[in-house]
From TrEMBL:
EC number: 1.1.1.283
Gene name per UniProt: GRE2_1
Ranges in a coiled coil: none
Domain NAD-dependent epimerase/dehydratase positions: 3-257
Keyword field contains Oxidoreductase: yes
Protein name (record): Methylglyoxal reductase (NADPH-dependent) gre2
Keyword terms of this UniProt record: Oxidoreductase
Length: 334
């Protein structure tokens, strides 16, 4: 397949590129500048670079941002849209909402208009587009939606982020329902995402938000007490998330589905810290002496069966994911 992948310098995206290349596909990824594109390319061998290139999309919030990027010779078969903003230090929720929504609808419109060869679009959504933090359903699965309203989205940056993912994904499914394009749609909805940091990481300050909690544990930031898990007790390893994106492109039965991409076991910050202490005893003094899980006894259920049955994902354990994450962070200078 020939794949267009947006947000190519991102954490999940970089792992997706690795898996696409390993499985023999060619990838064109989008970046905001030539400098970012060249930095990403340098992390691949010459043989891999023969199947890898980039195009520049400076601002995904522009409605026509992807109009040229979707054009290719030979044409694209699949588009994977991972690009979306995630910043909590914002003054206006629109700083998150507009780029996420316009970026998603903009690329769908561009594909319908100028890339008739594309048969499938895969959008990286999030478990927060399913999460109902004030009143959890009995079970989360691919049919569950976050009920957040525009008024709630404006209340604080956390709500704005959750709304950006929810509204962007709803906009994608609404587009499919009303526009009837030649391609079908798949969304991948991971919760907390751990796993080895990307090879092209410029700074430990640039790591993804989920891994940042492990980085902070290694730095001793939580020595006097771990933060709460904020109601999200589901997680996945980035390598499993990346494979899910690639399998979603390869497996015909994945079309028109929404996948909760969550590992088989729950986690809390105390569980993560306990794995660090057990496997890296030299780091024990960076963490509280007493670790108490905030995982509730009546924690909500979840159903990840479609990801295992259709995408054939065999999830890594929390121990394996955390150990590999810590090793990668240490190599990166943590």
């Amino acid at each position: 397949m020939k794949v267009l992948l947006t947000g190519g310098s991102g954490f999940i995206a970089s792992h997706c590129i690795d898996v696409f290349l390993q499985r023999g596909h060619s990838v064109v990824f989008t970046v905001r500048s030539a400098a970012k594109g060249q930095t990403a390319l340098r992390n691949y061998s010459e043989s891999s670079q023969s199947k890898l290139s980039y195009v520049i999309v400076e601002d995904i919030a522009e409605p026509t941002a992807f109009d040229e990027a979707v054009k290719s010779d030979p044409p694209f078969d699949v588009v994977v849209h991972t690009a979306s903003p995630f910043r909590l230090n914002i003054s206006d929720p629109k700083e998150l909402l507009s780029p996420a929504i316009i970026g998603t609808t903009g690329i769908l419109k561009a594909i319908k208009k100028s890339a008739p060869s594309v048969r499938r679009v895969i959008v990286t959504s999030s478990f927060v587009a399913m999460l109902s933090p004030t009143k959890h359903p009995r079970r989360y699965d691919g049919a569950t939606w976050n009920p957040i309203s525009p008024e709630e989205a404006a209340q604080n940056p956390g709500n704005a982020y959750r709304a950006s993912k929810t509204f962007a994904e709803r906009a994608a499914w609404d587009f499919m329902e009303h526009e009837h394009p030649n391609f079908d749609l798949v969304t991948i909805n991971p919760p907390v995402v751990f796993g080895p940091v990307a090879a092209c990481l410029n700074s430990l300050n640039d790591i993804n938000t989920s891994n940042a909690r492990i980085r902070n544990m290694l730095r001793g930031d939580f020595k006097n007490g771990l933060p709460g898990s904020l109601g999200v007790y589901l997680w996945a390893d980035v390598r499993d998330v990346a494979l899910a994106h690639v399998k979603a492109a390869e497996v015909q039965q994945a079309g028109d589905k929404r996948f909760l991409l969550a590992a088989n076991e729950y986690m809390s910050n105390a569980d993560v810290a306990g794995i660090i202490v057990e496997n890296f005893p030299e780091l024990a003094d960076k963490l509280p002496a007493k670790l108490e899980s905030d995982l509730p006894a009546d924690v909500y259920a979840f159903d990840n069966s479609e990801s295992k049955e259709i995408l054939e994902i065999e999830y890594r354990t929390l121990k394996d994911s955390v150990v590999d994450t810590v090793k990668s962070l240490i190599r990166a200078g943590a």
